[in-house]
Amino acid sequence: MTLPFTGRLLGAVVLSALSAFIPVAHAVEQAAVKPRVALVMKSLANEFFLTMEGGAKAYQKSHAGEFDLVSNGIKDESDTSNQIRIVEQMIVSQVDALVIAPADSKALVPVIKKAIDAGITVVNIDNRLDPGVLKSKHLSVPFVGPDNRKGARLVGDYLAARLTAGDQVGIIEGISTTTNAQQRTAGFKDAMDAAQMKIVSVQSGSWEIDKGRAVASAMLNEYPDLKALLAGNDSMALGAVSAVRAAGRTGTVQVVGYDNISAIKPMLSDGRVLASADQFAARQAVFGIEVALKMLKGELPQVDADNVIQTPVELVKAP
Fold this sequence. Notes:
By secondary structure, this protein is an alpha/beta fold. About 45% of the residues lie in helices and about 20% in strands. It folds into 2 domains: about 35-145 and about 280-310, 3-Layer(aba) Sandwich (Rossmann fold), CATH 3.40.50; about 150-280, Rossmann fold (3-Layer(aba) Sandwich). Helix 2 crosses helix 11 (about 280-295) and helix 3 packs parallel to helix 4 (about 110-115).
C-alpha cells in the first residue's frame, strides 16, 4: 500500500529522528562503560604489597563509578615468569590500563611493549622499569613512585650518626636486577661512605624474611665485629633481627629496613630495628591508578625530565 504524501513525509521524519538518536544513544552507552584497570604487583606474601592492594581496593570502592579494578600478584618476589603470564592474561582480557610493579626491571619490558601495542595504557609503580631497555624498545612509560636512593640515604644517615667512623656494616639488598634494590643499595652506600663506615659485604636477601635471615646469619658469622645490617626492605630486616637474636648480638648490632610495614613497628618501638623508610604503601598503587585514569581521559602526566612522578618517602625512626 502506498501512503499518501503526508504519511510518507511523517514516516521520513520519524526515521530521520530515529537515525539521529541511535548514534547519540550509542555514544551515551559507550560513555557509561567504565575503564578496567589492572593492578599487577609483586609477591602478595610481602605485607607491603598486601597493603598496596588493600589501598587500591579501598580507593576503587570509593570511586566505584569511575573505574573497575582487577588486582593480581605473584607468589614470591622472583616469580618473574608468572608475572609475565599475568600481564599476557590482562592483554587477552583487554583491560584499558595496566598499573604494574615489575618483579624485574628488564625482563618485563617485552610484555609491557605487547600491552602498549595492544592499546593498553601502562603506568609503572614501585620498581622502575629499566630506562635504557625502554628506550631501546621506543617505549615511554611513566614511573610513579618515590626516590628510593633518597629514602635509603635518609635511613643510612640516621644509622651512621649512631656509629663510629670505621665501623663494619653489611648491606642486605633485594633482587639485584631490580632498580629499586639497586637504588636503595646506592643510597645506603652513599650514607656509609660519607660517614666513613666500612662496608664489608653486600648480598641479596631476595626481599624475603627467610633469605634475609640466612644472609644476615652468614655475615654475622664471617664478620664478628659487624656493627650494623642495612636491609633493603622490612621483610629482610625481620630476618636480620632474628639472625641477630640467634647470634646473641641483640643490642650490639643495629638493624635498619625500608617500607615501614606494620610488622616492623613493634621492633621500632623496642629498638630491635633502629629505622625504616615510609613510602606510603596504601597509596602507592593509588598514585599510579590516578595517573592511569587521567591518561585514559587524554591528559598527559606531569612528569619530570626522567619521565618520573615522584611520590613521598620519609624517615621512620625508633622513639
